[in-house]
Amino acid sequence: MKKTLAILASALSMSAAFAQTAAPAGASSAAASQTQVKARHEQRVEDRINYLHSQLKITSAQESQWNNFADVMRSNSETMGHLFEQRRANPNVSALDDMKGYAEITQAHADGTKKLVDAFDPLYTSFSPEQKKLADETFRRQPAEGGAHHRRSGKPAAPASDATVKP
C-alpha cells in the first residue's frame, strides 16, 4: 500500500510539473501563431502591392509615386492589423466598448482610404491612357473579388431580432 501511495504521489507531482511547463509552451505557441498570422497578413499585402505594380505596368518614371502609394498600403495594413489584434486580445468587452472599438476600426479604415486616395491621385494622373484603363478595370473588379474576405464564414449574418424570423 505504501508503495502504491508513493507511486501515485510521484505520478501526481510529475503531472503537476508537466502541467506547469505546458502552460508557458502553450503561451509561446500562441505567440508563435500570432507571429505567423501577422507574417501571412504582411505577405498578402506585399503580394497585392506586387500584383498591382505588375498589373498597372508601373514605369521607372512612376516609381517614386508608386512607392508612396505602396507605403500607404503598408501603413494602413499595419494600423488595421494592430486594431484587430487589440480587439482579439480583449474578447470580453461590454457591448458599448465593442461598439466603440468597431467605431475606431471604421474611422481608421476611412482615414486610411483617404490617405490611399491622396497617394493614388498623383500616380493615376501620371498614368498613360492604357494604364488608366488597366487601373479602372482592376479597381472596379476588386470589391467583387475581395468583398467577402472580411466575413469569417460563408453564412449570412444572424437577424437582428427574433421578431423578423418566421417559423
Q: Specify the biggest β-sheet.
A: none
Mean of pLDDT: 76
Task: Return the string of H and E elements.
Answer: HHHH
Helical residue percent band: over 70%
Question: If helices are DSSP runs of H or I spanning 4 or more residues, what is the number of helices?
Answer: 4
**How many β strands by DSSP?**
0
Low-confidence stretches: 1-24, 144-167
User: What overall geometry do the principal axes of the alpha carbons give?
Assistant: elongated
Distance between the termini: 63 Å
Summing up helix and strand content along with how strands pair, one would put the structural category as: mainly alpha
Strand content: under 5%
**Rounded radius of gyration (Å):** 25 Å
Structure notes:
This protein is an all-alpha fold. The chain has a domain at 36-139. The chain is built from 4 helices and no strands. The longest helix is centred in the N-terminal third of the chain and has 54 residues, at 2-55. The termini are far apart.
List the helices and strands and how they pair.
Elements: H1 2-55, H2 63-89, H3 95-126, H4 129-146
Helix pairs in contact: 1-2, 2-3
